[in-house]
Fold this protein.
Amino acid sequence: MAIVGMKKLTLVGLHDDRHRILTRLMEIGAVDIASAEIDDELGGIFNKNTDKEDLLELSGKIAVLEGAISVLKQFDKREKPIFKVRRDMAAHDYMGMVLRRHEVLARAAEVNKTRQELLQARSGINKNLNAITNLNSWSALSIPLEVESTKNTRILKGMMPAAADLDAIGETIAGSGLAGWIEITGSDPDQKYITAYVHSDDLQPVSSILKRNGFAPVSFQGYEGKIEDNIRKIEFSISDERQKADGIEKKLAEMAVHLDEIETVYDYYTIRKEISLTDGDVASGKRIFFLEGWVPAPLEQRLYDELNEKWTVDLKFRDPDEDEEFPVLLSNGFIADSVQDITGMYSLPSPKSVDPNPVMAPFFILFFGLMLSDAGYGLVMALACGAIYFFVKLEDTMRRFMKMMMLCGIATIFWGALFGSWFGNLIPILMGDASKDISIWFAPVTDPEYLLMWSLLFGVIHIYTGLAMKAANLIKQRKYLAVVFDVLFWYVFFTGAVLLVIPFVPGVPAGLSGATGPWGGYLLMAGAVLLLLTQGRKSKNIAGKIIGGLASMYDLIGFMSDVLSYSRLLALGLATSVIATIVNEMGSMGGFSFTGVIVFILVFAVGHSLNFMLNALGAYVHSSRLQYIEYFGKFYEGGGKPFRPFKRNTKYIRIKD
Amino acid sequence: MFDGNFFAVLGAALAFFLAGAGSAKGVSIAGEAASGVVAEDGDKFVSVMILEALPSTQGIYGFVIAFMIMAKMTELGSALDVNSGVALLIAGLPIGIVGMFSAIYQGRVAAASIGIVAKRSSDMVKGIILTLMVELFAIFAILISILMIGRVG
């Protein structure tokens, strides 16, 4: 159980079968097809072509379908499941839908067109609403809008800043001997809406006075009649447009019943695009073609039988070369499988290293439990996630996550029971003595130092396991001497350091702390000498060797801070149970009466959910961190490329053959 | 009025209000960056929410220490002598002060890491690791506060 071995496949087939073979390979989904390597010898015979036109056409169709899907989703009234899963579809139903694909594609285009109409109608409504707001500002204007002059007067309409003093402006005009009359025909907090009546002869000087005071003319081109009539007219057209928009929305809502079909056809075209893309990686000659790729070793025989049975093909499988990187596929048991995505978020292991998941899983799960550390929360989590895991249809990633959370919940019950925390001190409260200790092991709140000691000890174990993993990697790479130099010597050195500092760690039993000191000193010295002699061995000259050896001493500080970092196990664990206890205390303030019980239930539900969410998140990220930095840091060789088989990468449907 | 109880309660108050205020600030710094990302791409909500929540732990630690100081007061009895009171006050300071600063600075790293998520959501874990680096000091602070409380009385 670990990283799956891979075989390099070279498949040679007849040109006529090419498309069918590719389609079949996709259905099997076992080959990670690599771009075929055409060397000089084959250069004249084979070449690789990507059909760019075909790809462009497919991408265009996919874009149309995608647009329609995003529109129809808004109008889809069906209940949506909490966990998104692809629909199962029988192969012959799928084929039936594929035959109708042109019809569906046309419908998708129509959806997009209808959507455009809807947008247009909506923007028309907005434009008219704005027009009404503008006209309303002029509510006091009583003359028809198109009237801009009489025989001897000009009528100016425009805006002025709210601060403008109209009386003063009026006096300025009158004082200059000009014939002009200003009137406020509307106002809001920012602007005044002004109508000015000016004698034709005085137009020039009056407008320049107005302009000096911030007058900005407003045009009513296109309007006729009085303000009220115009507003009424626009309101009519808005209600018309609203009706139209409602009609379009209804039409889209009716079209939403075709969402499933459009999604299916979308997947059909993405499958075709995938085939077309992969086709570009295949080397084709006049009569034959060949392709190369990686196949998981366990599937070799099945692939061989299946292809040979139907077509004239030549299949060759070979083991990867010594220094050849092959794609990484992990195969693990029930528990190790669950934390696979935690490792995946960091990096996939290198194909030449050991799969870290089986060893990491128990640490991740137990550390999570120790940091959440309340059996009540663990119980809720294990039951909820377990129910989802066993009874709800899920995609693989979500399934693994639920499984991991269920296992973490079980670990939380384990630690919570050891520490006697069931929803904080709920059980003691119900028994009538809030401070009663019901722990199986001990209560961390009363003796945090003891838990600190254990937390650090778990840290040392975890880090030592990390070093052991490094040894496993080195053995897999046949570097046996390095196992002694780079792992064993560090064990000696670190163990010396650990024994030396044990007397200073709080919570260590007195008998133990006295005895270890001297031994630690000897071991530390021995380890230091061994490391000084060996850690610089990769340097060419003697100075480099000495500096390399000395520099390795610095790792002791790194080791110590790594171990201290595990004190978070205590800090987070304590936080959960303390807050849970406070919630119970607050809840039980009401005493044992009718209202008291109601208050208790409310505070209990809200307080514990909040505490659970915050601390579960904390436990999750901190447990991950302990793996990434303290554990992986010791040995991990990442950078593996994931195994991406050529298969139907569908988004909405799962085709059942 | 300046008896042991006064100093102990002051210690509990300082432990929580400094760390809590720091967390409020840190979460708000990260939250502003997070809202910006969600405005652009609603699908990244969960990733940025996790990052935004990280600086809230300091407030929780302050809360725990405040509670433990008060529990210690109950344990030691009603008339606390001034020495023990001052000792409890001082025990509240590490998580109060370190918690406040680490929460604010962690909030800034979280905001920067939210920037990572905005560009590449696949690198969210790296952002979480970077952000958690700052938290270690708050963890040491609560640890020291716990150990100090344990020594009083």
